[in-house]
Structures are given as C-alpha cells and as structure tokens.
Automatic annotation (TrEMBL):
<dbReference type="InterPro" id="IPR025161">
    <property type="entry name" value="IS402-like_dom"/>
</dbReference>
<protein>
    <recommendedName>
        <fullName>Insertion element IS402-like domain-containing protein</fullName>
    </recommendedName>
</protein>
<dbReference type="Pfam" id="PF13340">
    <property type="entry name" value="DUF4096"/>
</dbReference>
<feature type="domain" description="Insertion element IS402-like">
    <location>
        <begin position="6"/>
        <end position="80"/>
    </location>
</feature>
<dbReference type="InterPro" id="IPR052909">
    <property type="entry name" value="Transposase_6_like"/>
</dbReference>
Length: 144
C-alpha cells in the first residue's frame, strides 16, 4: 500500500457505497479491483496530473478514467460524500478546513459576456473547497 492509498477501515466503509450490480454499471468487465481503481482516482485527484499519468500499479488509466466518469454521471460521488458527512456528524468528532480563492485585482472590470452572466447566476466567482477528516481517538480528549 502506498502513501495516500485507502486503509482497511476506509475501504470497508467505501466498499459498501459503490455500485456492484451489472444493471447500474453497464456493459464491460465486472468491477474487480475497485479498491485499486479508487486508489488510482485518489492519486490522480491528489496530484492533479492527466489521467494518462496514473501509475500502472492502479490499473489501466483508461479503465480508471471511465469508471470515475461513469460513477460521476450516476451520482455515486454525491452519495459517498453525503454518507461520509453523516457518519462524521454522528460521531461528533470532525474538523472542516475551508479555503477561498480570490481573483487578482486586475481580473475586475474586464469585458463581461454570456459566460460571466452564467457564472454569476450560479453564484460562482469565489470557489470554495473543503476537507473533512475524523480526528484520531487519542486526539479527542480536551487539552489542559
């Protein structure tokens, strides 16, 4: 297992949230090695590289990409994030890290257009990303 790969406990939680029946996955090979596929997806998202650069130890880059795209279109990632957020809320021990990215001052006052109107309608303009993680058992006690 490489740095950043799913631990046994993480995989046990995630495994139950992935689609496994043939009707939901469509044609193709059976979903063997989903753990390796997930590790490949996480590696790619963590590094920000093109899909073709995913190391072969995670499987064929095209298989990893197609599975990621298919699960995205099927709403699997939304279901996973909601379930994990509920689990974190139920435990009562969680931490949220948020980052706001602002545009450069010279980006203001540029010529507007259709894309600006569409982005404004969606509320875009200040992307926010967040990370949630559960604190280890030994870090839960209040400090003195």
């Amino acid at each position: 297992m490489s740095r950043g790969d799913l631990s046994e406990a993480e995989w046990r939680v995630l495994r139950g949230l992935l689609p496994i029946d043939a009707a939901s996955r469509g044609p193709g090979r059976p979903p063997e090695e989903n753990r390796s596929i997930i590790n490949g997806i996480l590696w790619r998202l963590r590094c920000g590289t093109p899909w073709r650069d995913v190391p072969p130890k995670y499987g064929n880059w095209n298989t990893i990409y197609r599975r990621f795209r298919r699960w995205s279109e099927a709403g699997v990632w939304e279901a996973v994030s909601v379930t994990l957020a509920e689990m974190m809320a139920d435990s009562g021990h969680y931490s949220i890290d948020s980052t706001t990215v602002r545009a450069h001052v010279s980006a203001a006052g540029g010529k507007g257009g259709l894309i600006d109107a569409l982005l404004a309608a969606r509320g875009a303009g200040s992307p926010v990303s967040f990370t949630v993680w559960q604190m280890p058992e030994d870090d839960r006690s209040p400090s003195t």
